[in-house]
Design brief:
The chain has 107 residues and is an alpha/beta fold. The protein has a single domain, classed as Nucleotidyltransferase, domain 5, CATH 3.30.420. Helices cover 35% and strands 34% of the residues. The chain has a five-stranded mixed sheet, with helices on one face. Helix 1 packs parallel to helix 3 and helix 2 packs across helix 3. It starts with a strand and ends with a strand. The relative contact order is 0.20.
Length: 107
Amino acid sequence: MQASGIVRCSHGSAIASGIVRCSQGDWIVGYGHNIGVSSILEVELRAIVDGLETVWEKGVRQLLIASDSMTAIDLILGAKVVGLPRLASEVCNWISRDWQVDWRFDM
């Protein structure tokens, strides 16, 4: 799953989006929506949450998440759940389900 976010500074609106591919690289599903005014970190986390929900509903139980936000990945994997931003806590709740989730930083 490739999760990403776009923030348009001139408009102040943000889009959380991503794509899901199978292990051979074939497209399975894309997702995205306008989430309004948000920080870059919020957009990245929303894209991850939306992607996790999307792939769970598709029955995927083994997942590699690629993100270009090392801050988001570090926040999710390295921080304690107490005191996390709400969206990071949502990601932690999703990845604690019965599936295998691995992470990759894509610059």
